[in-house]
Design a protein that fits this description.
Helix content is 63%, strand content 5%. The protein is mostly helical. The radius of gyration is 23 Å and the shape is elongated. Pfam families: Rhodanese, VTT_dom. This is Rhodanese domain-containing protein.
């Protein structure tokens, strides 16, 4: 049986790995590019190198364009879905929103180098007023830079990578099984960390019905909206009487709130991890009665709770 020339498969592997990573599958796209780059050295074929680069770029853009159009179609609601499936905490969504607020679509030039950021920043770009042509320009530039770094690293350190691949071949499928188990354990760890955060604050959470009773008995209860500015622009309504805070700059403002008052924290993400993190931070600042709202603003609205419009500055 003829042996497989792995360099000949480089464009296919590069496309598949990068595309899978771009659409959010737990595939190590950058390590894939590095390994692919190491196989290109032996081929010594400039056309194969160029073809591999183009294939990887096509995979990156197709995956990104799918998320951009999803954001354009469904707006910021797509972020709720990312909150539900993301391995990163909900604060990854908030971080991307904050970065996009400051940098705009230019963020796509570097977003791939920050794990999880690209997956969130692209639908945000689609949900905003970013033109597809402008998105295409910065996405292709950012993806090209990222791909060049990955392939170049593989070509530069091909000897070390070849040694590792030789070791893997000696162990055969057993090492692939170890790699699969390792990936599964990593995913389980990320989900477990999220679950532990929510479990620590589950007893302190307040339901929509409990909040309604609290507001009826204590109209002056402090309700804190910790959504990002970009989320508020998409849904410019709050629970009546809410105070607005942005997690990126909120520490000093939050520290001014009365320590012994009941505080209810809510966000827009269905997993309310952002609200839980704020509650945790407030507890460290000395607040004794901090309660995240289960289900956030969406649960309040679905239960028929009143909302009021907020004035947003541009």
């Amino acid at each position: 049986m003829a042996s497989i020339n792995w360099s000949d498969t480089a464009p296919i592997v590069a496309f598949a790995g990068v595309f899978a990573g771009a659409i959010g599958l737990p595939v190590p796209a950058m390590p894939t590019l590095i390994v692919v780059g190491s196989t290109l050295v032996a081929a010594r074929d400039p056309l194969l190198i160029i073809g591999t680069f183009i294939a990887a770029l096509a995979g990156a853009f197709l995956g990104d364009a799918a998320w951009f159009l999803t954001g354009r179609r469904f707006g910021y609601r797509v972020l709720d879905g990312l909150c539900r499936i993301s391995l990163s905490p909900d604060t990854c969504v908030r971080r991307a929103s904050g970065f996009f607020e400051k940098r705009g679509v230019k963020l796509l030039l570097v977003s791939r180098f920050i794990p999880g950021l690209s997956l969130v920043a692209i639908p945000i770009a689609g949900a905003g007023d970013t033109r597809f042509s402008r998105f295409t320009l910065y996405d292709l530039l950012g993806a090209a830079l990222w791909i060049v770094v990955g392939l170049s690293a593989g070509m530069l350190f091909y000897r070390q990578i070849d040694a590792v691949l030789s070791l893997l071949r000696q162990f055969g499928i057993g090492m692939f099984a170890v790699a699969a188990i390792g990936l599964a354990l990593w995913i389980a760890f990320r989900y477990a960390r999220r679950a532990l955060l929510l479990a620590r604050l589950r007893k302190s959470r307040i339901s929509v019905d409990e909040l309604a009773r609290l507001l009826a008995n204590e109209p002056g209860a402090l309700i804190v909206d910790v959504r990002s500015a970009i989320s508020r622009r998409d849904d410019p309504y709050v629970i009546p009487g809410s105070r607005l805070f942005d997690l990126a700059t909120a520490d000093q403002e939050l520290a001014t709130l009365p320590r012994h008052s009941a505080l209810v924290i809510y966000c827009s993400c269905p997993n309310e991890v952002s609200a839980a993190k704020v509650a945790e931070r407030l507890s460290k600042l000395g607040f004794s009665n901090v309660r995240p709202l289960t289900g956030g603003l969406g649960a309040w609205r679905e239960a028929g709770g009143d909302v009021e419009a907020i004035a947003l500055t541009t």
